[in-house]
Amino acid sequence: MAVKTATFSLFTRAWWKASIIRALRTALVAAVPYIPVSYTGGAPLLAVGSVAGLAFILSIVTSLTGLSEADGKSQVYWVAIVERVVKTIAQSLVAGIGTAALLTDVDWPTVVQASVFAGFGSLVLAVIAQLPEAGTPPTLPVTGTTSTGVTDTRAAVTSAPYGGSEATVVNNYSIHNAAQAEQITPDSATSTPASE
Q1: Which helix (H) or strand (E) element contains residue 158?
Q2: Are 123 and 77 spatial neighbours (Cβ–Cβ below 8 Å)?
Q3: Which of 26, 40, 80, 97 has the lowest CB atom count within 10 Å?
Q4: Cβ neighbours of residue 138 under 8 Å, at least 6 residues apart?
Q5: Of 8, 134, 11, which Cα lies nearest the Cα of 71?
Q6: The whole model's pTM is what?
Q7: Is 171 left (phi over 0), alpha (psi -120 to 50) or beta?
Q8: How far, in Å, are 117, 151, 156, 194 from residue 169 at the CA level?
Q9: What is the 3-state secondary structure (H, E, C) of 62-123?
Q10: Torsions phi, psi for 176 (to 5 deg)
Q11: pLDDT for 33-92, tens place per residue?
């Protein structure tokens, strides 16, 4: 049985930069759910700082297993997001528990709720600001219309210069040149443009 080893270097600038950015994001999303609780008297402000600090440290420790962005690798977009959210929930949960002196002192509903909100915050941040370890995010198909008026929903409609005027390209199935109103088959779309 082969043992999988991490392929990272703790002494590279890329690893430290990536791990600190992750740790700051984790500390932020772990602490934010506790702020309203601290103002209502449910948790002291020191506990919010403790949760943020513990989440920061836990994120650095978790980063010791390796970081895709520091290794120059990318993951599937949704896999990277799910991994980040699950790690954030776990780190926030452990950080929330770690602020109590005893397990009986843990305010379980608050800690669990804050951990779920931290995971949601991580999801929102991941969607808004693309994750460095994630590949290209999936795009929704854009509906286009061919020159014959047929709706084509298979790919985005793009504009490109063709024969000195704008042309609309739809999936390389048809090209409509507004100046000449001609249709080109897929085979001739890759050839040189017709003379004007």
Answers
A1: strand 157-162
A2: no
A3: 40
A4: 77, 78
A5: 8
A6: 0.61
A7: left
A8: 44, 13, 9, 16
A9: HHCCCCHHHHCCCECHHHHHHHHHHHHHHHHHHHHHHCCCCHHHCCHHHHHHHHHHHHHHHH
A10: -110, 115
A11: 988 878 887 668 888 899 999 999 999 999 998 888 887 888 888 888 999 999 999 999
Number of Cβ atoms within 10 Å of the Cβ of 55 = 28
Distance CA(82)–CA(122), nearest Å, equals: 10
Answer with the residue of higher pLDDT: 112 or 101. 112
47 and 38 in contact (C-beta within 8 Å)? yes
Q: In terms of Cα–Cα distance, which of 124, 113, 117, 132 is closest to 63? A: 132
Count of H-run helices and E-run strands, the chain: 7, 5
